Amino acid sequence: MVSNSPCTGSVSQGSPDHAIRHDSLWFDDGSVVLSVEQTLFRVHHSVIRVQSEIFANLFRIPQPNGETTIEGCAVICLPDKAADVADLLKAFYKPL
Asked: Is 24 exposed, middle or buried (CB count within 10 Å of its CB: 0-12, 13-18, 19+)?
């Protein structure tokens, strides 16, 4: 299940100090941050939207004012395992 409500933990408090940026899936020009467990992925919403109907539908939902952001990017919290999300994103960015 995907949640676009504020994250629990340090990110929701506006202080991502305890969250760790993923080494290879943090793109400086990314447009959205996925917060999973204590890992942050900064990716391109256009890439994940094209690759996933779930993300495409999520981005159609209007976001509330005052949403959590990191470096100007909206933060989307996912209840999944960070390793699983990393594998999914790697498949999106580096297909066979």
From this structure: exposed
